[in-house]
Specification:
Length: 434
């Protein structure tokens, strides 16, 4: 099956590139931060975290470890729960003035994404913030090839940002999120201590868990890399390069982990086995989608976070409107995979099985429905909102949601099934409630 999926296509790519950081995983490994920073040649670091973690045992452990290794440190804790251009501007000033030879981040995706972008803008200022973003939003200015070494310490089990070359930022004036993706943004080392997940509220584990699940599911069902055009300049090969044998490895295992442990990890903070596995699964999914790209799940989540209103989420100390990233991604997912299944039915069927869907009596033609049913079941068992209606959207919002998300051009083109604006409207319309 795998060979067929990657069969050569006329003028299609015949090469793919993989980039991952050196990676350390295990309970208590935050105590290695100092030695690892020193090993990367760091003598004075800028440590990025957020106001909620600033006084946590996790940041204290990293600070103590850096001290033991004689690494000087200054702390930046002004990261917002959704990384945005304003916090990156502040982080960039911190980097520009700090005289650092390395950066350490301790936090979830927003902290790590802020650290990545702050280095870029602090060391290589742009005239306009959007200069480094791809057209049509930005000017597509080339991103310089050199930043500082980055040791990324993940504290949530979702984004996998510790393993990706991606920074997702909210542009406040446009009220929407866009992606910076460049190999230079990849951390040199990742440190993942699953003990950090012991204190996460249930809805944070649910949201980050659905994020990792969708990373895995989208990259496993993405268009094959052989169906993207051949890239003549190897250094310009995009990160969104399509499904490939490497991304399959991490995606399959991450789907298995989500299928077995998501519900357990959300519903019991004491279930260390489940929460450890979700942390591992998040990194695996990050290593996978960071080298393949996601598709419609993530693309269609951007309309949700752009247009949300009067909605809050339990477990997140954030004022309205706020829908956490993973929830924004899962809301339309059942409807999306019903739509995409016909383009890669075997992969959707396999994914349903990996997620522990009961496939008794089901055939390959049922793959989209089976996968959708299993996603809805997981949403119900973890207290997630029931579709777009669960976060305040109705049928009248569909055209605006579709118009907003349609701007995520490359991710939409990574879908296994060609998808136009009308298709997106139909997907949203079928995702109001399940
Ligand atoms: Fe994500």
């Amino acid at each position: 099956m795998g060979c067929q999926y990657f069969d050569p296509c006329d003028n299609g790519a015949d090469t793919y590139t993989i980039a991952i950081p050196k990676y350390t995983f295990g309970r208590g490994c935050l105590r290695e931060a100092g030695a690892r920073a020193a090993g990367l040649g760091m003598t004075r670091v800028g440590l990025f975290t957020d106001p909620f973690l600033r006084d946590s045992v996790y940041v204290a452990t990293v600070l103590e470890s850096l001290k033991q290794a004689a690494v000087d440190v200054a702390v930046f804790d002004e990261t917002t729960i959704e990384a945005d251009d304003a916090s990156v501007e502040r982080g960039a000033a911190f980097v520009a003035e700090g005289n650092f030879d390395g950066v350490v981040s301790v936090g979830g995706g927003s902290v790590m994404d802020t650290a990545k972008a702050s280095m870029l803008y602090g060391l290589h200022p742009a005239e306009e913030f959007l200069d480094y973003f791809a057209p049509p939003l930005g000017a597509g200015r080339a991103i310089p090839r050199k930043l500082l070494p980055h040791l990324a310490c993940a504290t949530t089990s979702g984004t996998g940002s510790e393993c990706t070359s991606i920074s997702v930022l909210r542009i406040n004036d446009l009220a929407t999120k866009f992606v910076l993706a460049n190999p230079v943004l990849l951390p040199q080392e990742a440190l993942v201590d699953p003990a950090c997940s012991d204190t996460l509220p249930a809805m944070v584990v649910a949201s980050t868990g659905f994020d990792l699940l969708c990373h895995a599911l989208e990259c496993y069902t993405a268009k094959a890399y052989t169906r993207w055009d051949k890239q003549e300049d190897p250094l310009k090969r995009p990160l969104i390069q399509g499904a490939n044998p490497w991304s399959d490895l991490g995606a399959r295992k991450a789907l298995e982990i989500a299928g077995e442990y998501l519900e357990r990890g959300v519903n019991s903070a004491d279930d260390h086995e489940a929460r450890d596995q979700l942390m591992w699964g998040a990194s695996l999914a990050g290593m996978a989608f960071g080298n393949s790209g996601t598709h419609l799940g993530h693309a269609l989540s951007y309309g949700v976070t752009h247009l949300m209103r009067d909605v809050t989420t339990e477990g997140y100390p954030v004022k309205a409107p706020f829908v956490p990233h993973g929830i924004s991604v899962i809301l339309a997912a059942p409807s999306i995979f019903r739509y995409t299944a016909e383009a890669a039915p075997e992969r959707h069927f396999e994914a349903a099985g990996l997620l522990q869907c009961d496939l008794t009596g089901a055939g390959i033609d049922d793959s989209g429905e089976a996968l959708a049913r299993r996603l809805i079941e997981l949403m119900q068992k973890t207290g997630a909102p029931n579709g777009l209606g669960g976060v305040g959207f109705g049928p009248d919002d569909v055209p605006a949601l579709a118009a907003s998300s349609a701007r995520q051009v490359r991710a939409i083109a990574n879908s296994p099934r060609a998808t136009n604006l009308v298709d997106i409207e139909n997907i949203y319309a079928a995702a109001i409630s399940y």
